[in-house]
Amino acid sequence: MRFSSLIIGLTSIFTLNAQAASVDDYIKQLPPGANLALLVQKTGAQNPVVDYHGQQMALPASTQKVITALAALLQLGPDYRFTTTLERKGNVKDGVLEGDLIARFTGDPTLRRQNIRNMVAALKKAGIGQINGNILIDTSAFASHDKAPGWPWNDMTQCFSAPPSAAIIDRNCFSVSLYSATQENEPAFVRIASYYPVSVFSQVRTLPKGSAESRFCELDVVVGDLNRYTLTGCLSQRSDPLPLAFAIQDGAGYAGAIIKDELRQANIRYSGTLLRQTQVTPPGIAMASTQSAPLRDLLRIMLKKSDNMIADTVFRTIGRQFYGVPGTWRAGANAVRQLLRQKAGIELGNTIIVDGSGLSRHNLISPATMMQVLQYIAANDGKLNFISMLPLAGHDGSLQYRAGLDLAGVNGKVSAKTGSLQGVYNLAGFLTTASGQRLAFVQFLSGYAVEPANQRNRRIPLARFEGRLYKDLYSNN
């Protein structure tokens, strides 16, 4: 028995060493200094096919959305819908509401201005022409900061990281056009559609096209209170306007301004003021409402397109529903940890989760922990129908044009979530091999950097690495 155990142990050591040597061959395709943690395991198996730094903690980036989606299905269920309502506090008599009108927002990431217009039209149809009270913008569904810990400050004004507040309209993103002046050193001017209730000012200086200064003078934006934006820096002379888009920083203020304008257009007057309501209060009498699509549809968009807004509103909603408190980042993180332990038997251990999207640089997780999540998904996919929501290589979502998987010849064979931050290129999902075996895999790749002169072609080493790796995994398992 001892001799047999020794042989088995030596065989395991040899196999692991062979794997390490094999993975090192793939790593040679990457830029110097890149860090890789890789774990590959047959679904339902106990031991990995490849384990290369499988316990190493890494930034998950948007592969975090896999965890968010699973926790959402376990807590909220596939049919959950976000609801936005217009409620009254008071009675209606002869077309007059004697009391306040409440616009109650719950974090619907798909709410549009047209939905607000339709709800206001329902008030008008009910005969309301005057409100003798205040307009209350209720955002009590969420509390504390709308920005998660660890989000890079210089991404805050980018639409992909728009703060996921309780009040979201048209993704809390707006666009402007910046025009250079005809004379150099004159200020550029900005134009914005009148239906955006924001203020945008330009302090941008126009530079001659091709001037030396234009190489280093950058455009920037400074955000003030009440959704006021000031553009600064420089812009080279150009014939066409420069299109720009920015994230709304004050969701409640933005929603309030839109509701005020829609009431005006519907000729519904009010005698009070526009106020924010952040404390949880009993609901009023619903006058109009709108709902999002079912959660399953939202999660599909979230995973296919790596939608941060959906991920983070869902994350905060998980915390709100699990604990019965306003949704915060901490409540969401604690709820996800408890849900996975109680309902899926997944221990997150020393994993750090602070948001649902993976934008935060505070998040940390190992491939081994992410593998637990993937194995649970595979074992329960008949009930969850989860894998079909992931991007499919060569077909849709963030894997439609993944060069490395195309080189590997595995289009249509890989369903996986991507994860990208500066210097990070992650994948987590499933590969169906040539023999019909399903592999779960986690690729956490960080520290990826190339010389400035090679920035235009920076993904070529990544494509070579993934091309060789996934071709071999497909062919040899």
SSE diagram, text form:
Blueprint: H1 2-27, E1 35-42, E2 50-52, H2 64-75, E3 83-93, E4 96-104, H3 113-125, E5 130-131, E6 135-138, E7 173-179, E8 189-191, E9 199-207, E10 220-224, E11 228-236, E12 242-247, H4 251-265, E13 269-270, E14 274-277, E15 285-291, H5 295-305, H6 308-323, H7 329-344, H8 367-379, H9 381-384, H10 403-408, E16 414-421, E17 424-432, E18 438-446, H11 460-476
Parallel strand pairs: 4-5, 4-6, 5-13, 6-14, 9-11
Antiparallel strand pairs: 1-2, 1-18, 3-4, 3-15, 7-8, 7-12, 10-11, 16-17, 17-18
Helix pairs in contact: 2-5, 2-6, 2-7, 3-4, 5-6, 6-7
Explain how this protein is built.
It is a single chain. The protein is of the alpha/beta class. 31% of the residues lie in helices and 24% in strands. It has 11 helices and 18 strands. It has helices spanning 2-27, 64-75, 113-125, 251-265, 295-305, 308-323, 329-344, 367-379, 381-384, 403-408, 460-476; strands spanning 35-42, 50-52, 83-93, 96-104, 130-131, 135-138, 173-179, 189-191, 199-207, 220-224, 228-236, 242-247, 269-270, 274-277, 285-291, 414-421, 424-432, 438-446. Strands 3, 4, 5, 6, 13, 14 and 15 form a 7-stranded mixed β-sheet that branches. A 5-stranded antiparallel β-sheet has the order 2-1-18-17-16, sandwiched between helices. A hairpin with a 5-residue loop joins strand 17 and strand 18. Helix 2 packs antiparallel against helix 5, helix 3 (113-125) packs across helix 4 and helix 5 crosses helix 6.
